[in-house]
Amino acid sequence: MVKSRSGRAWRRPALFGLSVLSCGLLAACGGSSPTVPTPVAPGPTPTTPTPAPEPAGFLHLQQGSSVITYAIDGATGRLRESTRQGLGDASLMVGEPQGRYVFAAYDDPGQIVAYAPDPSSGSLMARSVAEAGTNWTSLSASSTRLYATLYYFSGAHFYPSYVSYAVESEGQLGLPSVEYFEFDTVPSVAVDVDSDPAVLYKSTETGGLTAHVVDPDGTLTQMGGSHLCLASSMDYAEPLVAARGFLLASAHLPASQSYGPSTESVCSWEGPRLAPRANLGVDADYAVALTPRRGSSVSSSAVGPATLVAMRTWYSVGHGLHPEKKPQVGLFAMSDDGDLEPLDTVESECAMRMLFHPSGRFLYVSHSGNCWPDLPGWRRLPESLSLYSIDAQAHLGLVETLEGAGGLMAITTPAVAASTPGR
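Now predict its structure.
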């Protein structure tokens, strides 16, 4: 997780027996022969109520010290509140890619908790608790391992650190693998959890990037490094997101002329050797990606097998040396070659977090009420959560906005997870 520029979550009573009894009693009585009843035209055939669509999983949204769980409509992506739980004020939250678990990191006390969703309501049930450090700065998960960076507390001192846990059966977390970083602050990191083995990319004190393969025990082995965006040197770079063997990072490029302004641009690198690939010419400081999973019943992305990338991008308004910058949400498709194709953009003034539905058909955007206080024209806005559909043409369409909702997010899909072979 990269810090933002501002500080860089659904008999009738059976009357037939009574009718037979009444007719029997009448026949047993004396009197005239019974009359033949007049036929009655049949009424409309009762219709069977259409069952509610199966929820396409649950969205878990952190609100203060509570987690609100919403059932996701499988057809529209709309949200219906299911449960509210007081689970503590988490610092970070991430869902496991198969939709089985939610992992939450807490500063007080310093620990990570693994939760599993109730299949019917989505309420979260604790499965495992790992005592750890505090001041969590990033959290990523694959189906087999959890990766985090934080300030680790040991011997009355705080150390910028990396910690990893094996994700075992039923969400149990294994023993931690801990490594300390050499510099004073925790570096910006991105983990490619779909690579085999996983690769952790991080910033360096000298302004470059390093790539580290995650060994089976969770330890890191450095494989490569780079100080270049294509052929241009970088003052510094912050990893944004890694997917399909490619890294996207926000690079600060020095001015080409002594009087010219420096620039921010997203650059890409390939593999753990960090081979420079492209300068995308996009100013962005936050990104998420969704890679369709082969054989998964939820892989129905509008762009097919391509990886979807959503970025908080910035565009300039005005002219001169210091034009005003405004944020928006950009949707891109990443090819197997790592190339990015712009698909659509939407205005989103205070987008702070984004999350794809595993199907690739919806994008959830959480807005903060306190965004960009250092920018001209800044104003405090209510927190909110916006849902965008991604149609067959890969366009973003606003479906609904929940006012007052905004925070950390994770998605679980227990119905899909239960049917996944090899669990």
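Residues 1-43, 295-299 have pLDDT under 50 and may be disordered.
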